[in-house]
Amino acid sequence: MKTIPVITVDGPSGVGKGTTASLLSNHLGWHLLDSGAIYRALALKVLNTDAETSDIDTLVELAKNLELRFESIIGEPTLVYLDGECVNHDLRQESCGNIASIVAVIPEVRAALLQRQKDFRVEPGLVADGRDMGTVVFTDAQIKIYLTASAKERAKRRYKQLKNKGVDGNIRALEKEIGARDARDSNRKVSPLVPADDAIVIDTSDLSINEVFQLCIEMIDKAGLKANLER
Ligand code: DC
Could you count the other beta carbons within 10 Å of the beta carbon of residue 38? Predict the structure, then answer.
């Protein structure tokens, strides 16, 4: 059976994984998995149903029955529908990111979401972004990329993003939040945020998104992976 190619892009929050993965999937004409959006959708469901983040049975039930649909058109942002409603805006809220990071610590929740992520691996190929794409979900990926940047640099980027949206941010508070999220994602027992042994680590602190993209393209060319031109 022919193996469907996968490129994984892992790393901490605010490192540019989403943008890099999306540029790569556009370039290759491959599918895109934003696995963080699945954890965030579960977090939104938790918030909407007032479930307790300590009630594992309920969280697992919610995770298993999550009515989630992704609608993607190449070159445009993926639309995420939860219970039939477009929730892109809600998913980006800090509250969702924080609850996502809290429920993502629970092994039973991760197990309940595993197959849903694997199912994204369809022809002609997949670019998957998250924390454990290369270490757990797609261990046989053809290329594993791990992006990193200092918490200070990521807080600066987030501050700029918020400012562009007309939202006031506090750079010190953002750095603190990012640090707390990193610690939770990195120190959990199951699927901690670490580069896979065979991942290529890129420190993006002093690189533009275009420079990161070019480095990835070089890896793809070297690996002989081909873009899908029939689209
Ligand atoms: O990438 P993100 O910020 O959208 O992810 C939100 C949270 O979801 C993150 O803090 C940890 C969790 N997550 C995870 O544990 N594993 C993944 N593959 C993706 C996200």
Answer: 23
